[in-house]
Amino acid sequence: MIFPIGDQQIEGGYKPLFTYSLIVMNVLVFFYEISLPVDVTELFVFFYGAIPVEILSGQDWFTLFSCMFLHGGWMHLIGNMLFLWVFADNIEAVIGTFNFLLFYILGGLVASVVHIFLILIAKSPW
User: Fold this and answer.
1) Is 11 among the domain residues?
2) What is the pTM of this model?
């Protein structure tokens, strides 16, 4: 399997500040999460993670956003940040910062909805 190790930069010297900000925010949240004691980490994840049964009952809608910054371990964080580093800067340069922000948020929301949908399918009697 070949992993992305580079790309061609968009000409014009565009600085993808939002992409870099997302990487920093994700890393800071992860370092905060791993600095907590184990029992507090569980509470942190339960509070900020999108739990399907709570979303479906109309509770904790904010977790559809906050869960975008949680990672389940070093490899999860590194994999996600690698793809942000390699691809997101070009996407942000082409579609603009505001559209990239919408793209990122909508992508995270779609991921949460798919997660909830798959949980529903797994629990369905058919």
Assistant:
1) no
2) 0.82
